[in-house]
User: Fold this.
Amino acid sequence: METCYHGGSLPESNLFVVAKDSVGHVGTGDKTKSQLKRENERAQKKSLGESVKNPDMNEEHRYTGRTTTELIKRTGEQPPKHANGKELCLIWHTKGECKEHCERKHSHCKLTDKEATAMKDYVNKNK
Assistant:
């Protein structure tokens, strides 16, 4: 089992898998540039593994906007960081789920009180 940055356990991905719908494919000759771009984005997301739910999701941190990139643009500030300087995963802490191989999966764990306050302040600036 992997651990988050402060020694707590990361959730087992097979316990929190999100159900996925099947998607039909179009023949290669019929694809537009936007279809190819979407397929490329899906392939990249798939390489990050299955979706994993955050069992410790704090509803005070929930961001209901479309994307976390939108949240960052609205604040004009970078997201809160851990005491060790590593970035928190905004998707995990504001959307309630992320991918099992996320580059910020070290933060896929319950936040400390100080981190939770920083996340709440960050999200509430932009609701």
In short: Residues 13-18+32-124 form one domain.
